[in-house]
Automatic annotation (TrEMBL):
<dbReference type="InterPro" id="IPR001650">
    <property type="entry name" value="Helicase_C-like"/>
</dbReference>
<dbReference type="GO" id="GO:0005524">
    <property type="term" value="F:ATP binding"/>
</dbReference>
<dbReference type="InterPro" id="IPR014001">
    <property type="entry name" value="Helicase_ATP-bd"/>
</dbReference>
<protein>
    <recommendedName>
        <fullName>ATP-dependent DNA helicase RecG</fullName>
    </recommendedName>
</protein>
<keyword id="KW-0238">DNA-binding</keyword>
<keyword id="KW-0234">DNA repair</keyword>
<dbReference type="Pfam" id="PF00271">
    <property type="entry name" value="Helicase_C"/>
</dbReference>
<dbReference type="GO" id="GO:0016787">
    <property type="term" value="F:hydrolase activity"/>
</dbReference>
<dbReference type="GO" id="GO:0003678">
    <property type="term" value="F:DNA helicase activity"/>
</dbReference>
<dbReference type="Pfam" id="PF00270">
    <property type="entry name" value="DEAD"/>
</dbReference>
<keyword id="KW-0227">DNA damage</keyword>
<dbReference type="InterPro" id="IPR047112">
    <property type="entry name" value="RecG/Mfd"/>
</dbReference>
<dbReference type="GO" id="GO:0003677">
    <property type="term" value="F:DNA binding"/>
</dbReference>
<keyword id="KW-0378">Hydrolase</keyword>
<dbReference type="InterPro" id="IPR011545">
    <property type="entry name" value="DEAD/DEAH_box_helicase_dom"/>
</dbReference>
<feature type="domain" description="Helicase ATP-binding">
    <location>
        <begin position="178"/>
        <end position="333"/>
    </location>
</feature>
<keyword id="KW-0347">Helicase</keyword>
Length: 709
């Protein structure tokens, strides 16, 4: 033992002391460096360890925490929503102050878990409350109401070249009522591919232009791509001419260039660049965002007097959070016209033969097929952690290597972003060199699933003797970005008794064990980029391939789309620019390479490119064979065809950001994480909604006289 002078004075002869710390090997000797010296009464207890804060050590931070809990009880209670006590009670969780105390100074491990769970619930509730407080901010501005007469309503509906479906009629009636309100409104229109969202957008725009005051009789339709903007504009033209409404396509025309006010377009269609060109916002009464999940929060920020209609099949997590926890009204469109028939299948990139055969069949039958790649060129950056557990695609299943980043790569710094192509080259090579010196082929890790058994694991390794505890590596599928370092003794509950898998899972989910980031080599390697894959398709289908991606000029994009639409080039190799706006008759098959890199919303939209207009369709998601978790996720998406359920799945996968809108997805919580805590999150949301619902009148407290007969 190496002690400081004050520790040597502290240790009086004849007393029993307990030492706590991490042993290290030094010249064939196990050594304690600066261990904590505890007294006999500490034995068997659970002591908190705090990270160093500035110049304060763990003990000083702990003292400050005690002071806050002692002197700041009312302050802590005032920080959190008022319905927290009722929700904690309903879930049989300890009250807030007890939870804080048990989290920091638990008497038992179970008490620590329950305290932490209660604080998770408090944090969840705080996020929901923040979203609820943020949601109404844009609805405060007064504005002149729309003067929509029955005659004008019938005239607008009569200009449509088709009759509204029952679902469209119900939805439009609800949206129209909101647009006639004397305050600005935020509305969410949820409808799958082919459900008729565009018709609702046109009706909203015409209603604003024809029934709004002369000083506010303009509307904007915002599309995520030039292709979709042109498509919306072309479909709008015939209806607009019937109603005598002037329209403009941003890009083909310059906003505000008309010298005669009588020639100024009343409805403008364009991409988000149109928003930056507007200089007369006082004239704009409505903005419609088509495929709202394709825009950032800042793009969707509008003046407080403007109605905002968000349309999508799969709203982004932040928008869904505002709908679920805030005051964002939602309107749903059902696909009344025809039942979509799209066969969706997940294949590995190593065995894509079935998809290739379907593409060949589609082209042979004079139909059309799309190949979608996540990247035009491979270019992405990851931020370096101190240490990472790395899964090499060529390693045996459930084995990896532990890599100390700064030791393995001295030229890199922790926190530094590094391009994935460089990471792939360096990390894969380094992992292979480590494996050469390891006959077993890497360090094993164990999945905490139904087949896991602590008894079988420790019995199989009972012949190995270790002076100090070994750390076993455990994996929880609900926390796919980390691996847990679990001391061997944590798997035992006695000399011949073993801990249940559910107990270990709970400990991991409460972060009772240390963990390191988990990186998968398959994520670095990826499938081929569009540019790398293009020669393969051109050789296989000469003179039949069109190419489409966001880096092309507008003219080249239009040529590619027209060649594909006409059938001159029946095979389109594209980036996910085709995710929205591609309504191509005869499009039968879509193959999505690197599907694991795409979000739920993008995959749902890409599947929607085929099987339209009642025709059959085929969709294939390709993923890495070496990553069973990625394949399982894609299979869940493939099986689900309800867009709103997919949006909820996306919400639970990615989180919903910080509640204020600065980030529209991601985990910003200190304690709760999605998808790990998804079920608890849904449970808390349901309880919050139930408690907020108006209570029915109590007949016993307000007796009413029976009417006389």
């Amino acid at each position: 033992f190496n002690f400081r002078a004050f520790q040597q004075k502290q240790l009086a002869p004849g007393n029993t002391w307990i030492f706590s710390g991490k042993p290290k090997r030094l010249r064939d000797t196990w050594t304690f460096f600066n261990p904590d010296v505890l007294v006999q009464s500490d034995l068997g207890g659970i002591l908190p360890i705090y990270r160093k804060e500035g110049s304060e050590n763990s003990a000083q931070v702990g003292s400050r925490v005690r002071r806050v809990l002692k002197d700041g009880r009312d302050f802590l209670l005032g920080l959190l929503p008022q319905d927290l006590p009722a929700i904690l009670q309903a879930l049989d969780m300890p009250p807030l102050l007890e939870a804080v105390r048990d989290t920091h100074w638990p008497k038992t491990l179970e008490g620590a878990y329950r305290g932490r769970e209660a604080l998770k619930i408090a944090e969840m509730l705080l996020h929901m409350h923040t979203v609820h407080q943020q949601a109404p901010e844009r609805t405060f501005a007064l504005r002149p109401p729309l003067m929509l007469t029955p005659t004008l309503r019938d005239r607008i509906l009569g200009a449509l070249p088709f009759s509204l479906s029952p679902s469209q009629s119900r939805t439009w009636a609800g949206i129209e009522a909101q647009l006639r309100a004397p305050r600005a409104q935020d509305l969410l229109l949820l409808g799958g591919v082919g459900s008729g969202k565009s018709a609702i957008a046109y009706l909203a725009a015409f209603t604003q232009c024809l029934s709004g005051p002369a000083a506010m009789n303009r509307a904007l339709l915002i599309a995520p791509t030039v292709i979709l903007a042109r498509q919306l504009y072309e479909n709008l033209q015939g209806i607009a001419s019937t109603l005598g409404v002037r329209t403009g396509l941003y890009g083909a025309q310059v906003y505000g260039s008309a010298e005669n006010p009588e020639q100024t377009p009343q409805i403008w269609v364009g991409t988000h660049g149109l928003l930056n060109a507007v200089t007369d916002w006082d004239r704009i009464g409505l903005v419609v965002f088509d495929e709202e999940h394709r825009y950032g929060k800042d793009t969707k920020t509008l003046p407080s007097h403007v109605h905002r209609l968000l349309m999508t099949a799969t709203p982004i997590p932040h928008t869904l959070a505002h709908q679920r926890f805030g005051a964002l009204p939602i309107f749903r469109l059902e696909n009344d016209h025809h039942q979509r028939n799209v066969h969706t299948e997940v294949l590995t990139r190593q065995n894509p033969q079935k998809a290739l055969e379907q593409v060949h069949k589609t082209i042979s039958h004079q139909r059309k097929a799309l190949m979608v790649y996540a990247a035009v060129q491979e270019r992405e950056q990851w931020v370096l952690p101190e240490r990472v557990f790395f899964l090499h695609p060529a390693f045996p299943v459930n084995r990896g290597v532990m890599i100390d980043i700064t030791q393995a790569f001295p030229e890199w710094k922790v926190g530094q972003p590094v391009d994935t192509h460089l990471l792939a080259r360096q990390m894969l090579s380094y992992a292979e060199s480590l494996q050469l010196h390891d006959e077993a082929g890497g360090i094993p890790f164990y999945r905490l699933n139904r087949t896991f058994s602590a008894k079988k694991l420790l019995s199989a390794e009972s012949g190995q003797q270790n002076l100090f505890d070994r750390h076993l590596l455990l994996y929880d599928k609900d926390q796919p970005d980390r691996i847990f370092l679990v001391p061997e003794h944590a798997l035992r509950s006695g000399p011949s008794r073993f801990v249940r898998t559910s107990v270990l899972l709970r400990a991991c989910q409460n972060e009772a064990f240390a963990s390191v980031p988990l990186w998968r080599g398959s994520q670095l390697i990826q499938g081929k980029s569009l540019e790398m894959a293009l020669p393969f398709w051109e050789a296989r289908y000469p003179d039949q391939v069109a190419v489409l991606h966001g880096k092309m000029s507008p003219v080249d994009k239009d040529r590619a789309v027209e060649a594909f639409r006409s059938g001159e080039k029946p095979l389109l190799i594209a980036s996910n620019i085709v995710e929205v706006g591609m309504d191509i008759p005869g499009a039968e098959t879509v193959l999505v390479a690197d599907a694991e890199r795409m979000g739920v919303a993008s995959l749902a939209q890409l599947r929607g490119r085929v099987g339209r207009h009642g025709e059959p369709g085929y969709c294939f998601f390709l993923g890495p064979a070496q990553d069973p978790d990625a394949i399982e996720r894609l299979q869940r998406i493939a099986k689900e065809h309800k867009e709103e359920r997919l949006a909820v799945q996306d919400f639970l996968e990615r989180g919903f950001g910080d509640g204020t809108g600065a980030s529209q997805s991601g985990n910003t919580g200190r304690l709760f994480r999605l998808p790990r805590d998804a079920q608890r999150f849904l449970q808390v949301a349901a309880l919050r909604k139930k408690l907020a619902a108006p209570k029915p009148p109590d007949a016993t407290r307000h007796p009413q006289k029976m009417p006389a007969h």
